[in-house]
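Chapter summary example.
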Amino acid sequence: MASSQIGTGVSGLSRLRAALPFSNRDWGLLLVAPGVLLFSSFMLYPIFYLFYISLTDATFAGSVIGGGAELIGLGNYAQLLADSQFWTSMTTTWLFVAVSLVLKVFLAVGIALLLNHVRVAGKRYMRAAVIVPLGFPGIFTITVWRGMFSDARYGVFNTILGRYNELMSSLSAPEILLFDVPIGFLSGRWEAFFAYVTTEVWLAYPFMVIIIVSALQDVPRSLHEAAMVDGAGALQRFRTVTLPAIKGPVLFASILTAATSFQQFLIPWVFNQGGPSRQNELIIVYGYREAITFNQFGLSAAILIVGIAFVGMFMYVAVRYGGLAEGVGDE
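The structure predicted for these 331 residues follows.
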């Protein structure tokens, strides 16, 4: 009974398609139209509206909502390019993305190899433990890490370094191996930058581990065995067998997590609001501060548009030249 109803429905749909003057391509466009409309409503419209604000002299929320702002063309962009803080913020942001990405890739690949090794017992439970950071709200995790990086002498990391100094001193280690505690993790520029990167790596590595472990499980064991028969060592097998097999998934995960790092706001803001003295102000924090603190909504919109443009170009170049788009659009 049910199969006959399904057959009737399919035949009715076929007759409807035959009656309407639509080609298969037209039907495809018609079916994706609702999704495109929703995407445009929730993604493209805000971006275009943000671009419009960037062309105005909006200085407070009322002028944005009420339409009291006047068009000034590209004045905000000219002001932005002449602002040294913009270049400081942009340089710091890209450095943050690059350093955190390298550390995430090395850490995630190392953990994934460990969790996929045949001699490691309890891999199932270890894999479950690895993704635990994904279960906590980001603001909660970042707040905990901020407490661990406290400048106080008895902060978590300063206490650990103090114990390390005591141990090395008891072994008569040279002073170059000792740390000058307490370290101002949140009051020094590069100390704070290190704290940002460490927290970002902790937040993002579980996602990359999941992707890489899944890719490793698809590598045939026979390839490793054949390489071992040929006399290949562990490093050579990784270079010639494992790495080519996981290159695509690693690149895919790297692109996504790099784009997320570029948009990072919570870590610098919760830690020390991009300090000290705005030296670690990532691009999103920079845009937020210009709007909320200095009431420069037009300039803030220009900053965010530039950020969107950089992310878009990065994604395009990475996908286009990383080989992830191979086969797309091919007949």
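To summarize the output: The chain has one domain: 33-149+185-321.
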